[in-house]
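Blinded run. Sample ID left blank on purpose so nobody reads anything into the name before looking at the predicted structure. Input follows.
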Amino acid sequence: MKKIKFTLTIFALLNCIIFSAFSQNAATNSGGQVTQIQPSIIVIPYKTIGQNYRQLLEDPIQGFQKRIAISRVKEAFDSRGFTTYDFEGELKKSEAAGAFSGDAQTDEKDVIVKNSGADIFVVVDIDVQKGQSGTEVKIILQAFESATGRSLSNKDASSGKYYTDDVSKLAGKAVDVMKEDFLNVLQTKFTDIVNNGRSLYLEFVLDQNATMNFQTEVGSDGDLLSESIVDWMGKNAYKNYAKKGGSTALKMIYDDVRIPLKDQATGMNYEVESFGRLIRKYLKTINVISKVEYPRGQIIVTIQ
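Blinded prediction complete.
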């Protein structure tokens, strides 16, 4: 009797191991248990190459105008019930943490957006023109998905010309002209992300000193490395969506891989790095050593 129980226990344990190895990861399993209706947003000022945010905000003319633009756009999001983060507050936190030290390689914008935890960042620019026929303010908005940097919505509008120096009032008029269209497009795009996942660009490439290639047999089933990757990607991408692009003997390209906005097991934000970690760990199970990098929200997996 003890022998039978022991055998059943081993059999059940093996089943669990096999199931966990080949079933979809719980974090990306699209069971639909984690949903989100509206995104969280941070509004940041446009800056040119070489500028830093602190210098920009302290500029006697540009700084005032940028603050007005941020405030007016943030008000538009707040009025629609979006969760917003304060740009200057996030800037101060990053400065206090030394995130912009001389040896730091990360862009200021990337640091602030990532540390804020916002789903979307909106870049706002303002142009103030004064002349004999009046003052006119133009606002330009660009919205991007934080994790991947993909564009979501773009819009610009003008206040029209008025005989006034009240830049804040004119900025508000410009925002009012376009806010409904801009916010509606943004909400539609975000709802699509919630329902169908974030879209990622992903590459598998061979290191110049790699001891294998995509035609090398791996694992115990005799599958080629390329076949194993295709099978795993199809099982573990969000809603099993992994669209291959053009590939070569040295590179496998996925130009549209979906990952969830939220971890489907915990409800926490699902990071691009989390999916990259899953890939690295899977490759290790078939004795493939890899290095994973994340340039601008993409995933590059180098087979070593």
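Unblinding after everyone has recorded impressions. Residues 2-22 have pLDDT under 50 and may be disordered.
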